[in-house]
Amino acid sequence: MTPQEEVRTLDRPRLTLRAEGHDRDPVEYSPPMEPVRVRQATPGDADQLRTFRCASGPWYEAEVETFVQGVLADHVAQGFGALVIEDAGEVVALLAVIPQPFPGGGEGTVIELAAGAVRIDRQGTGAHGSSLSGSLVSAAVDEARASGHVGCYAKVALENVRVRRVLERAGFRAGPVVSDPRYAFYTLNLRA
Ligand SMILES: CC(C)(COP(=O)(O)OP(=O)(O)OC[C@H]1O[C@@H](n2cnc3c(N)ncnc32)[C@H](O)[C@@H]1OP(=O)(O)O)[C@@H](O)C(=O)NCCC(=O)NCCS
Asked: In the chain, is it the N or the C terminus that has fewer CB atoms within a 10 Å radius of its CB?
């Protein structure tokens, strides 16, 4: 199944968002009960990425937002790969997927999950296994496996407990980043 065909149904309760340590007012959000479609980004999505907001304070979220609005928007404009979830004509979540040689020179190719982000007003709208970021990671893993890649990896900030939870739930395992102890290197072996 390709990501374009992927349809995942989420249970999205009404909620008030007030993430820990965040200095913004809570966001009231009453999400629609409809299937979530994961599709490939197109160059036409680039303009929305240039103003995409996903950070609410911590340095590691600001880092991702800057990457999405700059480097990723440029890459998407040029046709590079990313997965997106759209709602009412707007991109509400995205995940950059970049094919890479196997780290360290091993056989096969892997997929780097370079940046995953959910728009600020849509974060936390999944419940117990159904977050938007979880849908994107699972679509990326399915596509990587179907395309014959032998694994996936992502470098994420150790402090970023939410993305770590999403990756661990998808079966990724954490290892250290020797050159920068602020990060963990998450890998998923698809050879089995
Ligand atoms: C990381 C991000 C994509 C996750 O968004 P999301 O899918 O809406 O995430 P949720 O708020 O649903 O949280 C994901 C999981 O972490 C859990 N979680 C939330 N806060 C937590 C906390 N303080 N401690 C531990 N777990 C927590 C949630 O319960 C959920 O797990 P569950 O589905 O098993 O219940 C989103 O926070 C984001 O866009 N952040 C800014 C960009 C960023 O940091 N991206 C990571 C790049 S590598």
From this structure: C
